[in-house]
Structures are given as C-alpha cells and as structure tokens.
Amino acid sequence: MRTASPAWAQWPDRSEDDAYTLGVEEEVMLLYPGSWSLAQAVEQVLQRLPDDLRKHVFSETHSSAVEITSGVHQNVGDAVAELGLLRGKLHGVLSEIGLTAASSGTHPFAFWHDMRVSGANRHQEVYGSMRALARREPTFALHVHVGLANPVSAVAAANQMRAHLPLLLALSANSPFWQGRDTGLASARTPLFQAFPRVGIPRAFESYAEYVETVDLLIRGGAFPDHTFLWWDVRLQPRFGTVEVRIMDAQATLGQTAALVALIQCLVRLEALEGYASSTMLRAQEVLDENRFLAARDGVDAEFIDPDRECRVPVRDLLDPLLEACMPHAEALGCVGELDLVRRLVEEPGAERQRRLAGEDDDQRRLVAALAGDFTPYPAHVSG
C-alpha cells in the first residue's frame, strides 16, 4: 500500500468555524416549449451564457441537460436564494433562443434514440467507457456538498450518512414516469442510473487513508481518469473539502430543494457531533441496499427494514424523531424554517404530484409544462 497521498486527495486547510458550509448542484432539463420534448441544445446554450453564468452553469453527459451550481454558503437560505437567481438568469438566456427548462428526476416521455452525448472531453470519456449506457434517457439529480474541517471528520460523517440515504431518496423521489409510461416507481431515476458502475451506497471506510488508497488503486489501474468518476450516493470531494450527498432526484421547486438541503446540512452536523445513526444499521450493507430499493419503489410510503427491531417501519414514523434530533442543529445553522419544509415533502410527495399533474388522461405534456412553470423562481417557490 502506498503511503504518499496523491495530489487529488489533498484536503484544503479549513478551520472548525468553516465547517458545514454548503454548495448545491441541480441537474435540469432543456426543453422545447409547446412540444415539451427534450432539446439537444447544450452547446448552443453554453455559447449564449453571459460571463456571470459561465462559472455556475455546466454541461452534463447528455446534450439536453445542464448543471446549475451555487457558490459556497454558510446557510441554506443564501444557497437557495442564489439558486433562484441562477434559475432566473438561465431562464432568460433560454427564452432568447426559444427554449425553457424544468427540474425532475426524469423526463416523462423521452426515448433513448433521440438522445445525444455532449461533446466535452469528459462526457465523451463517459460515452467511450459506458457505450450504450451513456445513450439511455438522461436522469437528473440534486447534489449537496457540506464542508468538513478535515478528512478524518469527513470520512466519519460520510460513513454515518449512509444510514440516512434511503430516507433522503424516499423524500426526494420525483420521477415516476419513463418512456411515456408510469413505472409504478416513485424514483425511476434510481434504477436507470444504477446501470452505471460505481453507483449506490458505498461501504464504510475505516480511515481517510483507506478511502484514498481504495480510490487511487482504481485510478492507477486505469478504471477511470480521476476520482470524480465515482458516482456513489455519498462520496468525498477533497478538492472542495466536502461530503457530497448525491442520492436525491432533482426537485421541481426551490422550496423542495431547500427542505432537502437543510435536512442534509443538519444530518451531517448531527452525525459529526453526535453519531446518531444505529451502529447495527451501519453494519448491515444488505439492509441499506434493500431500503434504498424500497425508497425508489415506494417513496415516502415505503416501509424500511429496521435491523435493530427486526421489523418494517414506515418512513413517516421515522421522520419525526429524526427531525427532532436535527432541530438543535438547525437552530445552530440558521435553517429552522427550511427544515420545517421537510414535512411538506411527505404531505405532497413529488412523484404523486407528478401523477396528479398528468391527470387521469395521462397528459404528460401538460405535466412537463407545469414543471417548466415551477422552474421559474417566484418567491412563493422558496417557501412552498
């Protein structure tokens, strides 16, 4: 085993006062208004971006998607406010070229044969490696970075966060439709993305050194060019000094995004300071994987396996005690209002809302039009 840490694994110098900072990434779809089909137009969009957007809007593997990335913020309110501004500016750019955008875990009626892979080197690398898998319909996720002062704390927090990933997926499930039909799943994005390698809930790591050696062995062996080709549901981002939670479907509104960002920020602080998650659950990789499937299938109606009690527990019964444990951390982080929005994710789950918008006549174009309306950042979307 090598002892020298590779360049990619160098953790930035941070003080404890800088811990729990936030960065948020939203993957969004590009659309043609009227037909509401995906627009394979990322190169055209990137060319039209003003300078202030170029450092916040990036291409994704598919030409019909872009990623919006916030800057670094101390609190959820500021991060989501910036996302709202970025959504608004992107909407303006798209309007000038006859396009619009929306946010959802999948596009309801896209088909693989209409998809194109973006021309950027990274995306062509993915295409060359994944081949036909990269030509499937695009999926859209929400990624949340939380800063930690050092890699020791980061590995510990990431290990603990594994226990919460199925719940975060259940709350965020927002992709019931695929290829023009209702899949019966709450998050069709999850099994679609599962076709890629290096996805899902990772194992626990005993130390940062073990994490680095495990990843670097794969890089040295030529499995992939760099550590960002790991697409685990939670991973470390040494360049930023963050734990990145990646399991969630993209959310239609800023209010839904704010709720999930607040919950993740509080959970990381809760686990870093208190170690809340059950040690039995953390050792039960098979249970975590099964609960992840149940979350993708049933969303907030799922019943998770509890390895301590050896029974099934409804997601709704898990939420209140978890929010109670998170509340002191929300108060310290200044996100009590955003954390309170988490209950709305249970009251109106994203997948069920999509089914309701499509209606009994299954009008998925009407659904996408409504999602596009959600994307435009009116103030009401931040609170609801």
From TrEMBL:
<comment type="function">
    <text>ATP-dependent carboxylate-amine ligase which exhibits weak glutamate--cysteine ligase activity.</text>
</comment>
<protein>
    <recommendedName>
        <fullName>Putative glutamate--cysteine ligase 2</fullName>
        <ecNumber>6.3.2.2</ecNumber>
    </recommendedName>
</protein>
<dbReference type="GO" id="GO:0004357">
    <property type="term" value="F:glutamate-cysteine ligase activity"/>
</dbReference>
<dbReference type="GO" id="GO:0005524">
    <property type="term" value="F:ATP binding"/>
</dbReference>
<keyword id="KW-0067">ATP-binding</keyword>
<dbReference type="GO" id="GO:0042398">
    <property type="term" value="P:modified amino acid biosynthetic process"/>
</dbReference>
<dbReference type="InterPro" id="IPR050141">
    <property type="entry name" value="GCL_type2/YbdK_subfam"/>
</dbReference>
<dbReference type="InterPro" id="IPR011793">
    <property type="entry name" value="YbdK"/>
</dbReference>
<dbReference type="InterPro" id="IPR014746">
    <property type="entry name" value="Gln_synth/guanido_kin_cat_dom"/>
</dbReference>
<comment type="similarity">
    <text>Belongs to the glutamate--cysteine ligase type 2 family. YbdK subfamily.</text>
</comment>
<keyword id="KW-0436">Ligase</keyword>
<dbReference type="InterPro" id="IPR006336">
    <property type="entry name" value="GCS2"/>
</dbReference>
<keyword id="KW-0547">Nucleotide-binding</keyword>
<dbReference type="Pfam" id="PF04107">
    <property type="entry name" value="GCS2"/>
</dbReference>
